[in-house]
Amino acid sequence: MEPTFIDTLRGIVGPDHTLSDRESLALYGYDSTPELEARPAVVLLPGHRDEIIRVMELCHGAGVSVTPRGSGTNLSGGSLSAGGVVIQTSRMNRILELDEENLTATVEPGVITSTLHREVERRGLFYPPDPGSMNISTLGGNVAENSGGLRGLKYGVTADYVMGLETVLADGSLLTTGGKAVKDVAGYTTTPLLVSSEGTLGLFTAITVKLIPKPRTKATMLAHFTTMEEAALTVSAIIAAKVIPATLEFLDQVTIRCVEAYAHVGLPLDVAAVLLIEVDGHPAVVAEEAAAVEAICRGHRASLFQTAATPEEALNLATARRTALSALARVKPTTILEDATVPRSCIAPMLQAIQDAADRHRVTIGTFGHAGDGNLHPTCLTDERDQDEIRRAHAAFTEIFEAAIALGGTITGEHGVGLAKKKYLPRLVGETGIRIMRGIKAAFDPQGTLNPGKIF
Q1: I need a labelling partner for 305 at 20 to 30 A (CA). Which of 24, 131, 185, 202 fits?
Q2: Which of 213, 234, 260 is at the close of a domain?
Q3: Angle made by CA atoms 272, 276, 277, in degrees to the nearest 5
């Protein structure tokens, strides 16, 4: 990229917010995806929507690629740019409005997810989506990837809460979709299309999400199982009993041992799996559902069942699950985290398929995840310097994804396709699906300059 072009960009966002030095570009050459590196030519940190519009207009006219980026917690390489412009939105971090009358919040894309949680909960309100990276990740990134989280079983994912978007398109034009109206069927429903578009259709500058009343109370429970199959069948039984917990999480033995060594929260080391279960709502409903969950777990041979006696104990149990990735990442230099997702009734065969693939290819895979909505995170502990082991790890994941598709599932439940999974997408959606998606991309971005190389 010509220095004069970078100077023009610097004039738009300011010299203090234009990064083109070697060290900064090296830093932005990575996100949280292992094995991938792609250094941009320049990183911009705009502070206002109008700056983004001017940058997009300039880059569009010059045919220069632009990649949006939040906190860089992406797990599929979606926020990496090779030689183009990265727009990092961390400075656009204002909560623009909390509308208690309409139960909505409007935020800029750089707002940290947990910051929004705290602000709305002070008012007795609730924004449920809670990705594992919520203390780091931004709302813009959450929307771009349609992030899920531990509460997804009962409350859904990010897409279920996005009501409106203000989006700058590749040519710098501004698109406003949706809003505060609860019902709106005027024309094509564009807002859900933009959610999970992984930065390939536009760059969000304002996001309106719906809020709900904060649950009055909750109960947190932990069930131990001597086999993974018993744990998986218990998940299906809880759902079949028409009990929908706020959280229904699974950890296998590999993960349990890593978490306990890391967080020291008192998890058992001699069990095959544990289920972390949380029910919330009205106190009477919580008591009834907690009793039902306990009866189902004991009826499915839980070797031990415990209920958190204090808020501190409940927090410890939740922390155990939220630290799973960090704990696993300490074991070996490279951690490949995936998110094969299947119908909830297929959790048991999916877990078996993961274990079979790990055994067949002689790799270590720890599995945890949102068992209640079928979203499992098989995590391979490896070392990218060992090329043979890396080859075997990817062969195992190919089998895992094929098993997920065969069971009626998908290759990603919340991490996105990005660079890392685009080779698997045609197996899932077929030639017609790819053709339709490419047509949508072309309608929004005819020159293909917005986050190029992702998804397809």
Answers
A1: 131
A2: 213
A3: 135
Mean pLDDT, residues 388-397 taken together: 97
Give residue 257's domain range.
217-322
Which residue, 233, 316, 13, is CA-closest to 306? 316
Report CA torsion sign: 156, 224, 241, 285. negative
Nearest to 317 by CA among 345, 353, 275: 275
pLDDT attached to residue 405: 97
Q: Which two structure tokens, joined as six digits, stand for 317?
A: 């149990």
Determine, yes or no, domain membership for 453: no
122 burial via Cβ count (<10 Å: 0-12, 13-18, 19+)? exposed
Place of tokens 């917010």: 17
Q: What is the mean pLDDT of residues 137-144?
A: 98
Residue partners of 60: CB distance under 8 A and separation at least 6 = 170, 171, 172, 447, 449
In a domain, residue 452? The reply is no
Q: Which residues contact 55 (CB under 8 A, 6 or more apart)?
A: 9, 12, 13, 44, 46, 66, 85, 87
User: What is the sign of the dihedral through the CA atoms of 360, 365, 368 and 369?
Assistant: negative
Q: Are residues 193 and 253 in the same domain?
A: no
Residue 456 lies inside a defined structural domain of this protein:
no
Q: Which pair of structure tokens corresponds to residue 6?
A: 């970078």
- Does residue 451 lie within any of the structural domains? no
Total domains in the fold of the chain: 4
Residue 266: the pLDDT is 86
Question: What gap in Å lies between CA 52 and CA 49, rounded to an integer?
Answer: 5
Tokens representing 151? 């509460």
| Contacts of 57 by beta carbon, 8 Å cutoff, 6+ apart | 171, 172
How do beta strands 273-281 and 247-252 pair?
antiparallel
Q: Is the pLDDT of residue 322 over 90?
A: no
Q: Rounded to whole angstroms, how far apart are CA atoms 387 and 383?
A: 8
CATH of the domain at 358: 3.30.70.2740
Can you say whether the dihedral through the CA atoms of 179, 183, 187, 191 is positive or negative?
positive
DSSP assignment of 28-78 equals TT--S-TT-----SEEE--SSHHHHHHHHHHHHHHT--EEEESSS--SSST
Q: How far apart are CA 241 and CA 233, in angstroms?
A: 12
CA 376 to chain centre: 12
